[in-house]
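ok new one. same drill as before - structure tokens go in, u give me an amino acid for every spot. 183 of them this time. try not to just spam alanines like last time pls lmao
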């Protein structure tokens, strides 16, 4: 079994921690692809992939297409940006259009994760709850919903989804490991 993790964060912090923790718990071979380190242009709607299921752009996405086809399980991780996925993750979604037409990702298992954090300096209310907790939660859930909508369209089967709020994902460590072990 081979697992491919895709990170839509330009940093190696929260999303990266979540991906790594989950993937290491699987005891299976895995790879993390950091989209920000690669040359991936944006879809120009040339429509070639509608007919021959191939993208004509020659950039790093070509290698990712092969890796996604071979993967048994895909883990998509993005920071929450404006209640949505990051721009680089959205760009990745757009570039998977050939799979929308070929159906090659249909029924592959996917796990979705996001990290949200409204405040650099955490403020706590009188109950010891982070002041932005509910806002972050709402925001993270909206991001996961965007990811789920994408998966529905492309045919990926969502196995689990998880968000982490206002820390580096460590609060969700146990849950991440549990999901990893189930794979
Ligand atoms: C452009 C931008 C927009 C953001 N929008 C939100 C948001 O809508 N909701 C939220 O909770 N956090 C938001 N954040 C904070 C990030 O979600 C948070 O810092 C996240 O943990 C970063 O993950 P990373 O360390 O994996 O990059 C935003 C950050 C940036 C840079």
């Amino acid at each position: 079994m081979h697992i491919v993790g895709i990170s839509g964060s330009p940093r190696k912090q929260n999303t990266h921690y979540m991906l790594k923790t989950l993937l290491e718990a699987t005891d299976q071979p895995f790879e993390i692809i950091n989209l920000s380190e690669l040359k991936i242009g944006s879809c120009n709607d040339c429509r070639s992939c509608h007919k021959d299921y191939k993208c004509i752009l020659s950039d790093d996405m070509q290698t990712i297409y092969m890796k996604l086809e071979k993967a048994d399980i895909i883990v998509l991780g993005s920071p929450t940006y404006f209640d949505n996925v990051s721009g680089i993750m959205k760009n990745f979604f757009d570039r998977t259009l050939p799979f929308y037409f070929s159906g090659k990702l249909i029924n592959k298992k996917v796990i979705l994760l996001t990290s949200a954090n409204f405040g650099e300096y955490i403020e706590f209310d009188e109950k010891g709850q982070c002041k932005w907790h509910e806002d972050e939660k709402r925001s993270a859930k909206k991001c996961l919903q965007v990811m789920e909508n994408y998966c529905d369209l492309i045919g990926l089967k969502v196995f689990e989804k998880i968000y982490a709020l206002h820390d580096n994902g460590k609060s969700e460590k146990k849950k991440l490991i549990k999901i990893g072990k189930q794979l």
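Residues 72 and 161 are 17 Å apart (CA to CA). and btw The radius of gyration is 17 Å.
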